[in-house]
Amino acid sequence: MKVEDSNELELGLCLHDGTYGIDSALERVAISDEPSEAGRAKSMTEKIINRLLAYRRDHLLKFVGVGITKELYDLCPQLCSQLWRRLDAVALIITPEMHSKEAREALSIDSLAATATMDAHSAARKCLK
User: Fold this and answer.
1) What's the confidence (pLDDT) of residue 15?
2) Does pTM top 0.85 for this prediction?
C-alpha cells in the first residue's frame, strides 16, 4: 500500500501459491473525505474489504493470509479484525524491520516500499514463512 496523493491509496495484491507469485493486481482506493479520523479509517477499511471481496468473487479464490504494511495498519487499525471477520483471512503486519539486514543495507527503506506491487509480493512471501 502506498499513499499516492492525499486522495487515494495504491493497493497492491499478490497471489502466491507457496512457491511463486501467480497473479498480481494494482488497485486504487479513494481516501474518504470524512472529517474525523475514525470515520476516514472506517470508510477506507470498508472500501479495501469490498475490493478484496470483489477480487475473490471474480477470480474464484480464497485469501488465507493477508500481509499489510504498518503504514496501512496505522491508517486503518480495524482492517486486521475485519479481514478475519469478513474474509476469514489472517492478517500479518509487515514492517521494514522484518526485511533481512542485508536487504535493509542494500536498499533504502524508501526503495523497499517503492511500489505497492513490490510491497504486495514481499508481504505474500512473508505470510508463507
Assistant:
1) 80
2) no
Of 9, 11, 20, nearest in space to 124 by CA = 20
What are the boundaries of each domain within the chain?
Answer: 2-128
The DSSP element (H or E) to which 124 belongs, if any, is helix 116-128
- Render the burial of 105-123: b for 16+ CB within 10 Å, e for the rest: eeeeeeeebeebbebbbbb
Rounded Cα distance, 92 and 26, in Å: 19
* CATH architecture entry for 2-128: Orthogonal Bundle (1.10)
Quick one: cell of 53?
A: 471481496
Name the pLDDT band for 110 (thresholds 50, 70, 90).
very low
Nearest to 2 by CA among 38, 41, 28: 28
| C-alpha torsion sign, points 63, 97, 5, 26 | negative
DSSP track, 37-95: HHHHHHHHHHHHHHHHHHHHHHHT----EEEEEHHHHHH-TTHHHHHHHHH--EEEEE-
More confident residue, 104 or 95: 95
pLDDT at 18: 72
